[in-house]
Specification:
heterodimer; A: 441 residues; alpha/beta; eight-stranded mixed β-sheet; five-stranded parallel β-sheet; 29% helix; B: 323 residues; 13 helices; globular
Chain lengths: 441, 323
């Protein structure tokens, strides 16, 4: 049976030899069948014919893919305040089960993470979890109110890797300017949820024919586009690094592409659901298809796919947003936004985008490991000698069906229940220690 | 007769999922029921022993009373629950409210709710028949049906008739039910209102959009004029009721360009002097009170059909009391 296997014998001191897998590391242009040796928590060597130390655990990886650990820079772990939806422990385990060696925890908890003590809490709880690494983000504004800048430096010293008011867009352009300027001191990204609230006007799904038919309030693409353009302009003005979260519109993708061409410091996310679903998934008032930004039109999905392929959207992130079942068991207007993603992301991306022919496997690893590490300045994202011993081993031929009852996450809110997928993580290694192992074969 | 799959299915959630034949069945079934309300003793034992809950989460007078008359004239036992006095204000969820009703062994629920999709939500979760008495902006199927019946009464047919819905289409469940029902029965449908109150993509449903009410009036055989809610002005969709009346109000002067036999409907309650002037509402073209009368018959038909009755037996059912 599946379960988090906290292997005592390999607690970071026992060397680990991953033998004979297809090793994919785009950070050094590597894609070949070879061995990876981890020792003392770091990558000791990559190559064939490596002599394993006597006490090493040897894992046969023939037929499997061995990559630098996957990183999800956009997850909601809900602790503190929303422990009925998820905790840092359950979220970190769900991440490991999904093949992620690290996640970035959004600070819109209750209370929100807007001071160094809260950052320290998340960091410590993540370390105690002993699964995927948990990197805290801090809020941009005190209390996420969009008014006054937080003690960004204090939070960075406590362990915050970036700042964001995710869940609430930064509506005040002046505050966004201050945040981007100030964050340059610490060389961190300012992540923004791009949405002009005036234009989205309490919409609950994408504006269009489906919303019109269902009688649901729509959010137009323009509500996202206007905010993306605003953020790009302010980033250009300040020279700061803006990270645009969950981009879902064709105009937004194109604006980011143009901004990158002229050297604006911008990184941007695509989510599996915006790559795979349109607003038609809302049909029947399915609250598991309610998220923010909403699922958009087929033309937008095509543009998000093109953006992921050409690297305009350089980071694949899930926006893992757990909610308790009875919160989603409500009329559509009343149900909260968001779906869980940690345990389906790799399978969905591999099945529909890699096997589906949009991107190749190295590009998938680039978007799910290398670029996320680079965007937020995290360790990992590479198998270079001496780097963190964070590795994901996946079986690219494993056929499985999404069954929410098998999730390690506390929540079950996904529109992908019952989807047949090919490819999943079988071994997740953090700091040289196995934190997740599936039954082989 | 209960819990059979009726000609309509288990529930009446909207007109969009119904076929043209199902809609015609309701209209045909309503015909014999019209007469019951004209009798000195307005009661037949068709739903005797059935328990019906009228669950109104939004204020409503006309629709609730119309349903209640329909239920009582068919001899059902009815209970009215309104949001203000219910456990909803104590924080109970819709699912729990529904389950508690169900636990008291009821047969049907008539529900009005502020959220689009609420009727379907309920229908998927309880075995009782669910009738949508208006869910958010989505549908108000019995209003659509009574509008269809009224048009058919006065025009003799629906196919080929040009019906224009005027006003706040965006927030209107009446508009959506009318559009689905009219299109299925072969009418030509137009909508007219300020662009702030027209939903995006409405043309894709197969309706014609009129920007100016004068054009709509010239085009139409039937005008269905919607109520402009005061909240729309407060949230800025229209600057003022006065200005709305000036540009979209249906007045006698504007009707001079109309066809001689133009029919005027309004789902009520009317804001006199806003969407419609009094002399129009009270004038010869207005069939607003006929709509109200037909509302009872249509709702009797829906209740009867969902309870397992068939249109063929409706005529004999209404004589049941006499036998």
């Amino acid at each position: 049976m599946r379960g988090p296997l906290l292997t005592r014998e390999s607690d970071g001191h026992q060397p680990l030899m991953l033998k004979g897998g297809r090793v994919v590391d785009p950070s050094q242009g590597l894609d070949e069948v070879t061995d990876v040796l981890l020792a003392d928590g770091v990558v000791e060597a990559v190559g064939t014919g490596l002599g394993a130390p006597d006490d090493a655990r040897i894992v046969e990886c023939a037929g499997h893919v061995v990559t630098s650990g996957l990183i999800d820079v956009h997850v909601h772990l809900r602790e503190p305040g929303g422990e009925h939806k998820e905790t840092i422990l359950t979220g970190a385990r769900a991440a490991a089960a999904g093949g992620f060696t690290a996640v970035c925890a959004m600070p819109n908890t209750d209370p929100c993470v807007d001071d160094p003590a809260s950052v320290g809490f998340v960091l410590a709880a993540g370390q105690r979890a002993g699964a995927a690494r948990v990197y805290p983000l801090g809020c941009i504004s005190v209390g996420q109110k969009g008014e006054r800048l937080t003690e960004v430096g204090e939070m960075v010293e406590a362990g915050a890797v970036a700042i964001t008011d995710d869940g609430c867009p930064v509506m005040d352009s002046g505050l966004m300017r201050l945040a981007l300027e100030y964050a340059r001191i610490f060389d961190i990204a300012v992540a923004d949820h791009p949405e002009d609230l005036g234009l989205s006007r309490h919409g609950v799904m994408n504006e269009g024919l489906v919303a019109t038919r269902l009688g649901l309030r729509g959010k137009p693409n323009a509500s996202e586009d206007a905010h993306v353009l605003r953020d790009l302009m302010v980033a250009e003005l300040t020279g700061g690094h803006v990270h645009l979260q969950h981009v879902s519109t064709r105009t937004g993708v194109e604006a980011i592409r143009r901004a990158k061409e002229r050297g604006v410091r911008v990184t941007a996310e695509a989510t599996p659901h915006h790559l795979l679903l349109t607003d038609e998934a809302v049909e029947g008032y399915r609250t598991d298809a309610k998220m923010n930004p909403p699922l958009r039109s087929a033309a937008d999905v095509e543009a998000v796919r093109a953006g992921l392929k050409d690297g305009t959207l350089d980071v694949l992130a899930t926006d893992h947003a757990p909610h308790h079942y009875d919160e989603k068991e409500q009329p559509f207007d009343d149900a909260p936004n968001g779906i869980v993603g940690l345990e389906t992301s790799l399978g969905l991306v591999h099945t529909h985008l890699v096997r589906g022919g949009l991107i190749d496997l190295p590009t998938m690893v680039e978007r799910m490991s290398v670029a996320p590490a680079r965007a937020f300045g995290l360790s990992g994202g590479t198998l270079r000698k001496g780097s963190a011993g964070d590795v994901t081993v996946m079986d690219p031929e494993a056929r499985w069906t999404v069954r929410t009852e098998h999730f390690l996450s506390k929540s079950r809110n996904t529109p992908f229940e019952g989807w047949d997928l090919v490819g999943r993580a079988v071994l997740t290694v953090v700091g040289g220690r196995i934190v997740w192992e599936a039954g082989w074969g | 007769m209960s819990r059979l799959v009726s000609d309509l299915g288990k529930d009446l959630v909207g007109l969009e999922p119904l076929s043209a034949n199902q809609i015609r069945t309701v209209l045909d079934t309503a015909e014999p029921f019209k007469e019951i309300s004209e009798r000195p003793i307005k009661k037949v034992p068709v739903l005797r022993g059935k328990t019906i809950v009228n669950l109104f989460f939004e204020p409503s007078t006309r629709t609730r009373v119309s349903f209640e008359f329909a239920e009582k004239r068919l001899s059902a036992d009815t209970v009215n629950v309104t949001a203000a006095g219910s456990s909803v204000v104590k924080g109970e969820t819709l699912v729990d409210t529904a389950r508690n009703m169900e636990a008291m062994r009821i047969d049907m629920v008539v529900m009005r709710h502020i959220a689009s999709g609420a009727a379907r939500f309920l229908a998927e979760r309880i075995p009782s028949n669910v009738i949508n008495a208006g869910d958010g902006w989505h549908e108000h199927p019995t209003q659509g049906l009574l509008d269809l019946l009224t048009i058919r009464d006065h025009k003799g047919r629906i196919e080929g008739t040009r019906v224009c819905i005027v006003g706040d289409i965006l927030h209107s469940r009446v508009a959506r039910s009318n559009i689905y029902g009219l299109l299925k029965l072969g009418a030509e449908v137009g909508v007219c209102g300020p662009p702030t109150l027209l939903p995006v993509g409405i043309q894709e449903l197969g309706v014609q959009v009129f920007r100016r009410v004068e054009e709509a009036i010239e085009w139409a055989d039937v005008l269905n004029v919607l109520r402009l809610q005061l909240e729309r002005m407060q949230s800025g969709f229209v600057p003022s009721l006065r200005e709305y009346n000036r540009f979209y109000g249906v007045s006698s002067a504007r009707l001079e360009r109309a066809r001689e036999d133009l029919l005027i409907l309004h789902p009520g309650p009317i804001n006199r002097g806003v969407e419609m002037d009094s002399d129009v509402a009270d004038g010869p073209r207005s069939v607003i009170l006929n709509q109200v009368t037909n509302g009872v018959a249509v709702r009797m038909a829906v209740l009867y059909l969902l309870a397992g009755g068939t249109p063929e037996t409706a005529e004999s059912a209404k004589h049941a009391a006499e036998s």
